[in-house]
C-alpha cells in the first residue's frame, strides 16, 4: 500500500511535520501513533472526524493508533485557540462524555485484539505527585519559550490562568508516558497543537534520548472561509441524537462545488483516481459527486441503513414531493399553535430562521415555501388543522427543509 505518509500528504492531512525524512523512514515499519480528544462534549463533531480519519488511514497501513480521551487534561482545559478559559467539567460529566466518544471513534478504528488502543489519560495524570512532577518534568520546560507560543501569547491579552499554563506540561507528559509504555513515536493533532506536540518531542528527547515525531493537520475551512463543521445551527455532531442522519447527510450534499474534491479526499476512503473522476464533473452533473460524498460519510458515521433513508428522503424532497420519516420534524403543541402561527413564526420555530425578522426577509426575497408553494404573504397564518396528518413541509431557499406537525 506504500508509505502512509504519502497517503496522508496526497489527501490533504499534512500541514507541519517536525522531521519529514525521519518520519517517512520511521513509517516504513509498524509505528504507534496517537491523537488526543478532550471530552468537553457528549459527542465529537466533523472537525474531530478529520483526525479520526487520519488514525484510520494509519491503521489501514499496518500501524497502531492510540486515541487518548483526556479525562485528566479535560479537567484542566487547553487554552489553544481560545480567548477565554474553558468551562471545567466534573469527573462524572467527563466519564459520561468519554464513553460516548469511545463508541464514535470505534466506528472507524478497530480496537479489537490490540489493533488500536483507547485510553483515558486520567489513569496516569490524576495520581501524579505534584512536587515530584515539577522536579522530574517541570524542570525541562522554559517559561520564556512557553510564553512565546502563539496559544499563550493570545491568552496573555485576556488573562491566562495558572491551571491552563500547566496544560502544555501535561500534554507533553502524555506523549512521554505513551512512548515509555507503548513505544508511541508519533503524535498528530490540529495545527493549533503544534507547540504542545513539539514540547512532547523535546521532553522525550531530553529524558529518553529518543527521536519521536510531530505531525499537524491544517485548519480545515470551507472555500468561503468558514470553519469546517460549523453551521448557523451550531456544530455538525457525529451523534445521531444531536444531529439526525438526514441533517448530517444534507450538510454534506450542500457542500460548495469548490470543496467537494478536497472533502472526498479527507472524509472518504475512495481511491484518489475515482475522486479525480468526480472532480471532472461540471454543472448539474457535479451534484453526483456531492451525493457520493454525502452517502459515503453518512454511511461511515451512521451506517448503511441510515444513509439509505437519508438519501431517499433527500431525493423525495428535491423531486416530486416530501416523504419519509427521515425528514427533520418539529411537533408543536396546541398551546404553542394557539389560533394559528404566521409564516414568520412558523419558520422561526422550525429552526430555518433565527428570528422573525430573518423569516420575514426570507419571504420578501421569495425564498420561503410551504408544501411546495412559494409564500409571498407575510400575514399568512397556519393553524392546527393545517399541521395535522402529514403536517406542513417548509423550505427555506433551495436546500433546507423541515416538517411541522401538530400534536
How would you describe what is shown here?
The protein is an alpha/beta fold. The chain folds into three domains: 4-217, Rossmann fold (3-Layer(aba) Sandwich); 244-318, Tyrosyl-Transfer RNA Synthetase; 329-406, RNA-binding S4 domain (Structural Genomics Hypothetical 15.5 Kd Protein In mrcA-pckA Intergenic Region, Chain A). It is built from 20 helices and 15 strands. It has helices spanning 4-10, 20-26, 46-60, 91-105, 122-125, 130-136, 143-148, 150-156, 162-165, 167-182, 194-208, 245-253, 260-267, 272-279, 287-302, 304-318, 334-337, 343-349, 356-364, 384-387, and strands at 16-17, 32-37, 64-69, 117-120, 184-190, 213-217, 230-231, 234-235, 329-332, 341-342, 368-370, 373-374, 381-382, 392-396, 400-406. The strands form four sheets. It has a six-stranded mixed beta sheet, sandwiched between helices. The protein has a five-stranded mixed beta sheet with strand order 9-15-14-11-12. It has a two-stranded antiparallel ribbon with strand order 7-8. A hairpin with a 3-residue loop joins strand 14 and strand 15. Helix 12 runs antiparallel to helix 15 and helix 15 (287-302) runs antiparallel to helix 16 (304-318). The longest helix has 16 residues, at 167-182.
CATH classification class of the largest domain: Alpha Beta
Low-confidence stretches: 81-86, 319-325
The CATH topology of the largest domain is Rossmann fold
Overall number of structural domains: 3
End-to-end span in angstroms? 56 Å
Mean pLDDT: 86
How many β strands by DSSP?
A: 15
- Beta-sheet strand percentage? 5-15%
CATH architecture of the largest domain, please? Answer: 3-Layer(aba) Sandwich
Name the structural class. alpha/beta
Shape, principal axes of CA atoms:
globular
Proportion in helices: 40-55%
CATH homologous superfamily grouping of the largest domain: HUPs
Largest sheet report: 6 strands, mixed
Strand order of the largest sheet: 1-6-5-2-3-4
SS field, number of helical segments: 20
Query: Whole-number radius of gyration?
Result: 24 Å
Amino acid at each position: 500500500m506504500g508509505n502512509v505518509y504519502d497517503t496522508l500528504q496526497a489527501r490533504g492531512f499534512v500541514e507541519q511535520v517536525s522531521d519529514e525524512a525521519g518520519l517517512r523512514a520511521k513509517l516504513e515499519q509498524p509505528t504507534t501513533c496517537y491523537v488526543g480528544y478532550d471530552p468537553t462534549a457528549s459527542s465529537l463533531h466533523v472537525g474531530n472526524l478529520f483526525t479520526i480519519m487520519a488514525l484510520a488511514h494509519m491503521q489501514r497501513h499496518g500501524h497502531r493508533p492510540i486515541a487518548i480521551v483526556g479525562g485528566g487534561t479535560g479537567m484542566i482545559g487547553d487554552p489553544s485557540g481560545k480567548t477565554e478559559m474553558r468551562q471545567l467539567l466534573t469527573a462524572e460529566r467527563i466519564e459520561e462524555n468519554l464513553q460516548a466518544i469511545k463508541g464514535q471513534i470505534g466506528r472507524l478504528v478497530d480496537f479489537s485484539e490490540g489493533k488500536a488502543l483507547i485510553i483515558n489519560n486520567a489513569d496516569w495524570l490524576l495520581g501524579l505527585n505534584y512536587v515530584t512532577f515539577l522536579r522530574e518534568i517541570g524542570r525541562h520546560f522554559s517559561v520564556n519559550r512557553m510564553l512565546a507560543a502563539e496559544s499563550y501569547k493570545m491568552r496573555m491579552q485576556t488573562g491566562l490562568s495558572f491551571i491552563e499554563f500547566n496544560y502544555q506540561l501535561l500534554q507533553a507528559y502524555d506523549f512521554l508516558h505513551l512512548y515509555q509504555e507503548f513505544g508511541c513515536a508519533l503524535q498528530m493533532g490540529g495545527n493549533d497543537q503544534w507547540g504542545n506536540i513539539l514540547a512532547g518531542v523535546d521532553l522525550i528527547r531530553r529524558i529518553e534520548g529518543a527521536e519521536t515525531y510531530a505531525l499537524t493537520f491544517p485548519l480545515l475551512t470551507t472555500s468561503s472561509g468558514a470553519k469546517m463543521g460549523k453551521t448557523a445551527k451550531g456544530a455538525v455532531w457525529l451523534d445521531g441524537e444531536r444531529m439526525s442522519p438526514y441533517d448530517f447527510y444534507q450538510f454534506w450534499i450542500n457542500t460548495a462545488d469548490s470543496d467537494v474534491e478536497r472533502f472526498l479526499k479527507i472524509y472518504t476512503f475512495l481511491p484518489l483516481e475515482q475522486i479525480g473522476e468526480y472532480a471532472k464533473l461540471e454543472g448539474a452533473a457535479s451534484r453526483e459527486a456531492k451525493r457520493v460524498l454525502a452517502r459515503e460519510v453518512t454511511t461511515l458515521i451512521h451506517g448503511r441503513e441510515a444513509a439509505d433513508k437519508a438519501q431517499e428522503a433527500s431525493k423525495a424532497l428535491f423531486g416530486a414531493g416530501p416523504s419519509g420519516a427521515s425528514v427533520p420534524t418539529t411537533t408543536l403543541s396546541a398551546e404553542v399553535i394557539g389560533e394559528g402561527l404566521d409564516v414568520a413564526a412558523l419558520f422561526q420555530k422550525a429552526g430555518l430562521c433565527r428570528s422573525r425578522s430573518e423569516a420575514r426577509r426570507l419571504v420578501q426575497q421569495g425564498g420561503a415555501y410551504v408544501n411546495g408553494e412559494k409564500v409571498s404573504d407575510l400575514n399568512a397564518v397556519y393553524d392546527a388543522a393545517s399541521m395535522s396528518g402529514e403536517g406542513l413541509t417548509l423550505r427555506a431557499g433551495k436546500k433546507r427543509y423541515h416538517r411541522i406537525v401538530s400534536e
